[in-house]
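Q: What residues go here?
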């Protein structure tokens, strides 16, 4: 359990380094939701739902874009989502490495 808390500490310290990038990517996704909302004629919250599900690469298929502009923005949102979560995964990887290094230095 102690190692988990060490990992969490390292994870959030790494995320703080890239926090501006993460915020910018989330803002781009929110703007993408606005564009999808306008292009598709749906309310913003439904478009935000579509954006988040697409950005997470889950894609339930219950809400889909039908216009060309909506589809283009959805593809861009998917690419932004891949970058966003790649950064989070890289931060988790770095936190694991730091945790292991810290444990080895204590031994």
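A:
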């Amino acid at each position: 359990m102690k190692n988990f808390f060490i990992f969490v500490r390292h994870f959030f310290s790494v995320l703080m380094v890239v926090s501006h990038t993460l915020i910018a990517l989330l803002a781009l996704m929110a703007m993408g939701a606005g564009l999808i909302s306008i292009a598709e004629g749906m309310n913003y919250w439904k478009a935000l739902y579509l954006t988040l599900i697409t950005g997470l690469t889950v894609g339930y298929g219950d809400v889909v874009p039908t216009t060309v502009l909506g589809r283009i923005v959805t593809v861009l949102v998917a690419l932004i989502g891949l970058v966003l979560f790649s950064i989070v995964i890289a931060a988790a990887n770095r936190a694991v490495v730091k945790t292991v290094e810290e444990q080895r230095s204590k031994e």
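A: Context that may help when evaluating the design: The mean pLDDT is 95. The domain at 18-93 is CATH 1.10.287.70 (Helix Hairpins).
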